[in-house]
Specification:
This protein has about 290 residues and is of the alpha+beta class. It folds into 3 domains: about 5-180, no CATH class; about 195-245, no CATH class; about 250-290, no CATH class. About 50% of the residues lie in helices and about 5% in strands. It has helices spanning about 20-30, 45, 55-60, 65-75, 85-100, 125-140, 150-170, 185-200, 205-220, 245, 250-265, 275-290; strands spanning about 5-10, 15, 120, 140-145, 145-150, 175-180. The chain has a 4-stranded antiparallel β-sheet with strand order 2-1-4-5. A hairpin with a 2-residue loop joins strand 1 (about 5-10) and strand 2. The longest helix has 20 residues, at about 150-170.
């Protein structure tokens, strides 16, 4: 949409959205920060040469209810360059805001009037909206110099919404609600970020080298579960397995024997009184270096 206008059908009405309308609204809203309507928007949200393409948050802030409602009010009252044609752009922004809300619900009840930004329930409007949204995406075409085309991102949105519909149909008989925000790839992305940070230049590891890289984060208990500079939010969840779980032994008898063996080993161990650990550590380091030579 930044480069090409987008055509879509909503409620059987053909509409066209343009990024230029968003630029015009941003210029019209410039001024004192205390009086800004879309105060979250910056140059990095609007202008092509300054866009941060990997920041999903920026896209959500542009395609938001505030931007949509501000554009609608401005267009209806004829302020600035925004005419009635920008109402189509406002409708498109409102539609994308609802799509984001419908797949990011993390609470049982809706807050701040966002009826779709909550858990999917039997009496919620998610299923009806997803059915409508799929039809809108199917009608969506981008106007290019060679004609009209549908990029892969549009088809991926259709697959995503169909996937959510399928999941809820499978779960609604056994579960009261589903939080769509919990279904994302951020934990997997952060995990592979830990693997890549250990392998550094080894971007295509074999199974053997992957096992070695996998053991290191487990022993270190994943010192950072968030991959720096990654296109995902910080994930505070815990890992499935840690070194402690791998070393633990099931069964009361086995645990008892292990504790007895550990106690006996500790009781029979004679600890040396090390007066100067620095000297001993230095000697060990030098000896190890000479041995490698």
């Amino acid at each position: 949409m930044i480069v090409n206008d987008v055509k879509f059908a909503m409620d059987d009405v053909q509409q066209k959205a343009s990024w230029q309308d968003i630029i015009d609204l941003y210029k019209l809203d410039e001024g004192d920060f205390d009086t800004l309507m879309c105060y979250k928007l910056t140059d990095s949200h609007i202008y092509k040469e300054k866009l941060k393409k990997m920041k999903v948050k920026h896209a959500a802030q542009v395609f938001s209810h505030r931007v949509s409602s501000t554009m609608q009010w401005t267009a209806k009252h004829g302020f600035g360059r925004l005419g009635t044609s920008s109402l189509d752009t406002a409708n498109f922004i409102s539609f994308m805001d609802q799509v984001f809300d419908s797949i990011n619900g993390s609470t049982y009840k809706a807050n701040h009037g966002k009826i779709l930004r909550c858990a999917v329930k039997k009496n919620s409007s998610h299923m009806q909206f997803w059915e409508k949204a799929i039809k809108v995406f199917q009608s969506m075409k981008f106007i290019t110099a060679r004609g009209e085309t549908a990029p892969p991102s549009v088809n991926n949105w259709i697959k995503t919404l169909r996937g959510f519909r399928y999941i809820w149909r499978k779960l609604c008989g056994r579960f009261k609600y589903l939080c769509p925000r919990n279904i994302n790839q951020d934990p997997i992305e952060n995990f592979f970020g830990c693997i890549r940070s250990h392998g550094v230049r080894n971007i295509n590891p074999t199974c053997y080298s992957f096992i070695g890289s996998y053991k290191t984060p487990i022993i270190n208990n994943f010192s950072s579960s968030h991959s720096p500079c990654a296109n995902c939010e910080n994930y505070d969840g815990s890992i499935l397995n840690s070194l402690q779980s791998l070393l633990s032994v099931d069964g009361d008898n086995d645990n008892e024997r292990e504790n007895q063996a550990t106690s006996a080993a500790v009781d029979n161990t004679e600890f040396e009184n090390v007066e100067n650990t620095t000297v001993i550590a230095t000697h060990s380091y030098i000896a190890g270096y000479i041995e490698k030579i």
